[in-house]
Every structure is written in C-alpha cells, then in structure tokens.
Amino acid sequence: MKAAILVESRAPLEVAELEMPTELSFAQVHVRIHYSGICGARINEIEAAV
After folding, report:
1. Fewest CB within a 10 Å sphere: which of 12, 16, 22, 44?
2. Structure confidence at residue 16 (pLDDT)
C-alpha cells in the first residue's frame, strides 16, 4: 500500500510503498480504505503554520 509521509516540515510529502502485515495481533483489525482526504489542520502541520 502507498503512504504519504511527512518527513520534514515545509517539504513535499514522501510517497512510500509499505507492506501490510501477514498476521494481525489480538484486537487489531484490517481496514481497507478506498478514498481519503486531508483536513486543514494537517495542511497547517505540513506547512508548519502556527
């Protein structure tokens, strides 16, 4: 699965390919996400806005 990762503020997010675990631990669930958005608070965090 792909993930956008914040490595450094005021820099582009890095897109990385992550591997899903083959087994889940007790009380864990696997959720398949088809679409995702981003809220303004996360954009402020990425841009290091106050």
Report:
1. 22
2. 97
What's the whole-number average pLDDT of the chain?
A: 90
Q: What's the pLDDT band for 36 if we cut at 50, 70, 90?
A: confident
Domain that residue 32 falls in: 1-50
> Could you give the 3-state DSSP secondary structure of residue 1?
coil
Decide: 13 and 4 in contact? Cβ < 8 Å: yes
Give the pLDDT mean for 18-35.
92
Rg of the Cα trace of the chain? Answer: 14
Strand, helix or coil at 45?
Answer: helix
Tokens linked to 40? 């303004």
The count of domains in the chain is 1
